[in-house]
Amino acid sequence: MNYYFVFQNKSYLKEKQGGYLWAPKRSKNGNRVSHWESMKDVKQGDLIIHSYMKKIVAISIAITDVFAAIQPEELRKEKLWEDEGWRVDTRYIEINNPIITSDHSTKILELQPSHNAPFNSIGRGNTGYLFSANKELARYLLKQTESIQQDEVSKEDVRKVREEVGLLELDEVEVLDDNDLVDAIENIEIEKSKVTPYFSEPKEKLPLKASGQGSFTYPRNLKVAINALKRAEFKCEFDNRHKSFIRKRDGNPYTEPHHLIPLSFHNNFPYSLDIEQNIVSLCSHCHNLLHYGKDFEVVLKKLYDDRKDLLKEAGIVITFEQLLSCYC
Ligand SMILES: [Zn+2]
Ligand SMILES: [Zn+2]
Question: InterPro entries recorded for this chain (predicted)?
Answer without folding.
Answer: HNH_nuc
